[in-house]
Design a protein that fits this description.
Layout: H1 3-27, E1 37-43, E2 46-50, E3 66-69, E4 72-79, E5 86-88, E6 95-98, E7 102-106, E8 112-115, E9 121-122, E10 128-129, E11 135-137, E12 146-151, E13 156-161, E14 168-172, E15 174-177, E16 185-188, E17 191-193, E18 202-205, E19 213-216, E20 218-220, H2 226-258
Antiparallel strand pairs: 1-4, 2-3, 5-20, 6-19, 7-8, 7-11, 7-15, 9-10, 12-13, 13-14, 15-18, 16-17
Helix pairs in contact: 1-2
């Protein structure tokens, strides 16, 4: 059977995977703190039909060989952690990181998750939590009689207590950063998890040690560029069609052979 059938098949599978990534990016164009992903491809093994350097006579060698590739495969996914646009909301518990770093939250299994989604709320016990109920780490408790909350650029949180003139400090938000943030594992729910590839987190107060500043009353939007994704979608569709055309051409060649 013609190799081109199987080679084109791997090409169609690869482009389908790339289109899945584009669709995922577009689906999350309105997701807080979402970072767009991509797919990296690599060629498959080669059949070495005529090795380079083979002797053609006692005094001569082949300057080049004859290798036939067997297609392509999706090798890895990538993630772009560039800054998303900041949008003012006026909500005191909406926080955005201007620069690098992640908010730390405690997951239900007791491990620590990392997120760029700063849409926080206060639960029944006064703890600052995410929309999914994950507690911000280190834990911060807002007094029940607090009338206002102020969060500085360095993450210092203070509350204005009813009947008191001076605000009361209730804690400080710590951010985390990684040597290789692209190695973080996406868990869904706008949360990433540490892996061996990402390295261990480096935690510190916001706006220090290379970490970004906390912006109160703002949310970071998705960094998906819709126009760029649409262009990628068109190119992916054309590549898929070309691989499909290669299968049709191979089929026609096999049909011609069967008629001989």
């Amino acid at each position: 059977m013609l190799r081109s059938l199987w080679i084109a098949k791997t090409g169609m599978e690869g482009q389908q995977t790339k289109l899945d990534s584009v669709a995922h990016n577009l689906a999350n164009v309105g997701t807080n703190g979402f970072k767009r992903g991509g797919i990296v491809f690599e060629d498959l093994m080669y059949q070495n039909l005529r090795p380079a350097g083979s002797s053609t006579s006692e005094q001569s060698q082949l300057p080049t060989g004859l290798q036939v590739g067997l297609g392509v495969r999706a090798a890895a996914s990538t993630r772009n952690f560039s800054q998303g646009a900041l949008t003012g909301t006026g909500n005191n518990l909406d926080l955005a990181i201007k620069g690098s770093g992640f908010f730390q939250v405690q997951l239900p299994d007791g491990t620590t998750g990392y997120t760029r989604d700063g849409a926080f709320q206060v639960d029944a016990s006064g703890q600052i939590v995410t929309n999914a109920g994950y507690t911000l780490q280190p834990g911060l408790t807002v007094p029940a009689n607090a009338t206002a909350i102020n969060i500085a650029a360095d993450g210092t949180v203070s509350a204005t207590i009813q009947g008191q003139v001076q605000p009361q400090a209730i804690g400080q938000i710590q951010l985390a950063n990684f040597v290789n943030p692209a190695g973080l594992e996406p868990r869904g729910g706008n949360v990433f998890a540490e892996t061996a590839a990402s390295g261990t987190p480096n935690t510190a107060a916001a706006n220090s040690n290379g970490l970004g500043a906390v912006q109160q009353g703002f949310l970071e939007g998705s960094n998906v560029n819709v126009v760029e994704e649409l262009v990628t979608m068109i190119a992916t569709q054309r590549a898929y069609e070309l691989n499909s055309k290669a299968i049709q051409t191979s089929d026609q060649m096999l049909q011609r052979l069967s008629q001989v």
